[in-house]
Amino acid sequence: MASPSRSGVFQAETDARLEAYAESISFDSRLYEHDIRGSIAHANMLREVGLLTEEEFKLIRDTLETIRGELDRGELPMRFELEDIHMHVEQALIDRIGDTGRKLHTARSRNDQVSTDTRMWIRQSLDEIDALLVDLQAAFLSRCENDFDVILPAYTHLQRAQPVLAPHYWLAYIEKLERDRQRLADCRKRVNQCSLGIAAVAGTTLPIDRHHTASALDFEGITANSLDTSSDRDFVVESTFVLSLIASHLSGWAEEWILWSTVEFDFIQIPQAFCTGSSIMPQKVNPDTLELTRGKSARVMGALQTLMLLIKNLPLAYNRDLQEDKPPLFDAFDTTRAMLELAAPIVRGAELKRDSIAARIEKGYLDATTLMEWMIARGMPQRTAHHLVGAIVSEAMQQDVRLSELPLATYQKLSDQIDESIYEVLGTTNAIAAFRSEGSTAPARVREQIQLWTSRLENA
């Protein structure tokens, strides 16, 4: 049977090779719930404006619900010649109720159908991703109190820099994830505009009510220009961009914990339920879930690149190229969802190796900056203090001792402004206690942030 999309203008049958080449049902079938919901809303609007009778609407609605059930159960055969999910649903309707089913497509096109279906699917998926982000934030927050007494080395250039409280680290990831949530929410506003009613490209001469349909489908408003709407896939690209940043954050976290789980760092133990072994080395416990997260992030970023290339040269308005937006879109959401679903239990189940961390926390002169600022607070110019502390660290390195182990005489030989109170800021514990600024790792500031995020996530 020829596709219902081919009108009487065609004098030749579709080449079977084109049917196989042009089909999208193999991937857009997952839009069926949204397509049926949109079709029922459209039919109801047609009834409201007098283009369908009450009886016709009820017949269409009830039959579409029956078709939805068949699709739920996998009972509706998929056929390449029907191309996409929209034609499958419409043909199934026509097969059951004849000409009344043919009225459903009044004042709409597959162009506005697919845009609306995709917007609804993305809107739902954005909400699902947001919920997973909240769960991951909660997982990091759940560690904060138990890990409050642990001091970790913070790194710049992958070199030990300054000491920070472990919960300060966890809060850093909560902040990253919060920006991700904000981007999701902002993106959702542009996604949540209804395309139905722009028809193919120019609108329709029929007396439809686009706001009625938009309200029934929980959209915030309607798209304003039929030409733009027919061609617009910004909402697809933007949502995938947001996912790419989420994937980047997850990849950075995975890389950090992969490093931390090595013998060389020995900071953390990944739950064995999320690790694998080696086929030849019996001692290995590999953090494969984290490695796959790091790897799968590339798929999400690759999807964004594919979409950017897909739309870059398209003239107004609809072009069939746009059919190819769904495989990368779906894969980006599926991959991000999978990464997030595994991230939260890993964060909750990981254990910091407290003894190993404590045994080496004083290595690397993490208190050097605190010492410099101690001198600045006593009137020494920053550049002078910076140079002086560098010389002090050099002396400690030559003696292979900590800054707190240098005798006062050594300090006073380098500067007559130093007295015994210098030892109050030396060592990582003292250095941590010396912090004051908002946003810092000062214990009081960290507790403020824990309380803030506890309140925020309770209401998320």
From TrEMBL:
One of its GO terms (molecular function) is argininosuccinate lyase activity. The keyword Cytoplasm applies. Residues 9-302 form the Fumarate lyase N-terminal domain. It holds the Pfam family Lyase_1. It is found in: Cytoplasm. Residues 365-432 form the Argininosuccinate lyase C-terminal domain. Its main location: cytoplasm. HAMAP family: Arg_succ_lyase. This is Argininosuccinate lyase. It comes from Rhodopirellula islandica. The lineage of its organism: Bacteria, Pseudomonadati, Planctomycetota, Planctomycetia, Pirellulales. The gene is argH.
